[in-house]
Amino acid sequence: MNLQPERALVAQACRVAAARGLVDGILGHLSLRVDDDRLLIRCRSDSDTGVAFTRPEDIRLIDFHGSPGASGELDGYRLPNELPIHLETMRAAPQQRQAVAHLHPPDVVAADLAGITIRPIYGAYDIPGAWLARAGVPVYQRAVLIRTPELAKDMVAAMGSAPVVICRGHGITSAAGTVQQAVLQAISLNELARMSLRVHWTGATPAEIDDADWNDLPDLGSAFNVQSAWRHEVARLNEGQS
Ligand SMILES: [Zn+2]
After folding, report:
1. What is the pLDDT of residue 4?
2. Contacts within 8 Å (CB) and 24+ apart, 215-218
3. Where does the record place the Class II aldolase/adducin N-terminal domain (predicted)?
4. pLDDT tens, 116-146?
5. Class of 3-225 per CATH?
6. Distance from Cα 87 to the centre of ligand 1, integer Å
7. pLDDT value at 163 more than 80
8. Per-residue pLDDT at 225
9. What long-range pairs does 194-197 form, CB within 8 A, spacing at least 24?
10. pLDDT at 242 > cutoff 70
């Protein structure tokens, strides 16, 4: 199974997440389900130089037991310790969760540790983010490395039907139908946390936007929210490399 476009996309999404400051160094990983039994996931190797420098060949095909999805797929590559995050998140909602991003965004971790709950404190500044916050962003309270199916199931239970969950003192898990959406909603969550921290630093406690405003915060559609937004992410990534 070649899956070259899919491997390139997951690798690109890793680089976008790193460029947006959602991961630092070598920690964090993305995955994409490709059929009933298999998924692509960002693996590690002896030539790995970190998430920001993820190459298509770092994205390997495995099955839901963590075994190679095809001959040779894990030769020279190691699975991330937190693989169960991806497997259990996908298993809990196979239709909706085709892609999973596990990231360590410092502003989200800091806001949660500061006792700040993610709430819709802005509207048109980022409409998808505002709706994400309105629905509520759950928190998994344990700061552990999620390296067993049991811990991953606990995290997934805390996540419920939400698209994202904050892992206290750790990071986030974001799940969606596409890799792009999984990363874009992580970017939105990071921005909510960053703005919340900024307002708190002034000494103010931000209020939620007025209930009357929601009628005029429309869904602008995936062509704008996902395709255009992703083109921008890729463009700024390429700009940074030149
Ligand atoms: Zn982690």
Report:
1. 97
2. 217/123, 217/124, 217/127, 217/130, 217/131, 218/127
3. 8-197
4. 999 999 999 999 999 999 999 999 999 999 9
5. alpha beta
6. 14
7. yes
8. 84
9. 194/107, 194/111, 195/121, 195/122, 195/125, 196/111, 196/116, 196/118, 196/119, 196/121, 197/107, 197/110, 197/111, 197/114, 197/116
10. no
CA of 86 to the centre of ligand 1 (A): 11
Give me the torsion for CA of 19, 21, 22, 27, rounded to 10°. Answer: 80
3: left (phi over 0), alpha (psi -120 to 50) or beta: left
Token pair for residue 95?
């239709």
If DSSP codes are grouped into helix, strand and coil, which group holds residue 62? Answer: strand
> Among 82, 88, 191, 233, which one carries the catalytic annotation?
82
State both tokens at 87: 């497997």
- Catalytic residue status for 57: no
- Rounded to two decimals, the pTM is 0.96
Using 50, 70 and 90 to split pLDDT, how confident is the model at 224? confident
- How many alpha carbons lie under 13 Å from residue 198 in its C-beta half-sphere? 8
Q: Residues near 225 by Cβ (< 8 Å), separated by ≥ 6?
A: 127, 128, 184, 219
